[in-house]
């Protein structure tokens, strides 16, 4: 039941940094998997490879047992990514931001779908607002809506609560659980142990480009 299988994944950047040194990892359908590790461990590199933003220098990624590269378009369409940084246009409306993102994946325009996503993320009342008018928490919600616009069933969140205050962090956790309840498989990176503990079914610990531990959170937290 691995929806994504990562085998021997390696990444050496052009400057010689070995960000990943052969990572094996199965992502199970319907789970919330947290990748926990300090800054520089290789978490972002790993999810950026699976999401097609960075090229691996070794190993492979399988989606539903098929080599991801052989079927790049369909694999990529199943995956949504919420990067750490804001990638929205300050002068674009919330509606346009989400609707346009759907188009980028070659999905036909579907206003009802965009409406559903905005309502699910409690952004409907803000649909006409420009991005620059929104609070930080709302902007993060739009980033998630944007990642969901093409209806992926696997969602990657890179440090979803970095630099976010406690209240917003709770909001984010609740939202992630809701998305999972709707059937989305979720992988998130974090450097907060409490966040991994609170959110995830399983936790993978990454250190210096290696997966050093992986397990359900009870067993794993006992080891730490
Ligand atoms: P994390 O997300 O765990 O903080 P990253 O994947 O961002 O880790 O980084 C892993 C390592 O790779 C770090 O040493 C980082 O400096 C390096 N790195 C990341 N991106 C690049 C890049 N584009 N070029 C060179 N080195 C990079
Ligand atoms: P580029 O032309 O940028 O070098 P490639 O044609 O090698 O990219 O790869 C196309 C896409 O596939 C890239 O976005 C990259 O992130 C991804 N990719 C490359 N190698 C692998 C791999 N072994 N497993 C999964 N994805 C990969």
Describe this structure in words.
There is one protein chain. A hairpin with a 5-residue loop joins strand 1 (about 1-10) and strand 2 (about 20-30). The protein is built from 8 helices and 10 strands. It starts with a strand and ends with a helix. A 6-stranded mixed beta sheet has the order 6-7-8-3-9-10, with helices on both faces. Strands 2-1-4-5 form a 4-stranded antiparallel beta sheet, covered by helices on one side. It has helices spanning about 45-50, 70-80, 95-105, 110-120, 135-150, 165-180, 195-200, 215-224; strands at about 1-10, 20-30, 30-35, 60-65, 65, 80, 155-160, 185-190, 200-205, 210-215. Helix 3 runs parallel beside helix 5 (about 135-150). The structure holds adenosine-5'-diphosphate (ADP) (2 copies).
């Amino acid at each position: 039941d691995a929806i994504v299988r990562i085998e021997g994944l390696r990444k050496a950047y052009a400057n010689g940094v070995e960000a990943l040194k052969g990572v094996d990892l199965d992502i199970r359908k319907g789970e919330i998997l947290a990748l926990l590790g300090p800054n520089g461990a290789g978490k972002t590199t790993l999810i950026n490879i699976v999401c097609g933003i960075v090229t691996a220098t070794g190993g492979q990624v399988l989606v539903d047992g098929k080599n991801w590269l052989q079927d790049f378009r369909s694999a990529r369409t199943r995956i949504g990514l919420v990067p750490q940084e804001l990638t929205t246009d300050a002068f674009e409306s919330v509606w346009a931001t989400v609707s346009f993102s759907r188009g980028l994946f070659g999905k036909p325009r579907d206003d009802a779908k965009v409406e559903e996503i905005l309502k699910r993320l409690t952004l409907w009342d803000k649909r006409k607002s420009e991005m620059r008018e929104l609070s930080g928490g709302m902007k993060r919600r739009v980033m998630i809506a944007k990642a969901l616009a093409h209806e992926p069933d696997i969602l990657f969140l890179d440090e979803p609560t970095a630099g976010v205050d406690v209240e917003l962090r709770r909001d984010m956790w609740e939202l992630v659980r809701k998305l999972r309840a709707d059937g989305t498989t979720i992988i998130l990176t974090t450097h907060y142990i409490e966040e991994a503990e609170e959110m995830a079914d399983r936790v993978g610990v990454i250190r210096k480009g290696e997966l050093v531990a992986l397990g359900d959170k009870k067993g794993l937290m006992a080891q730490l």
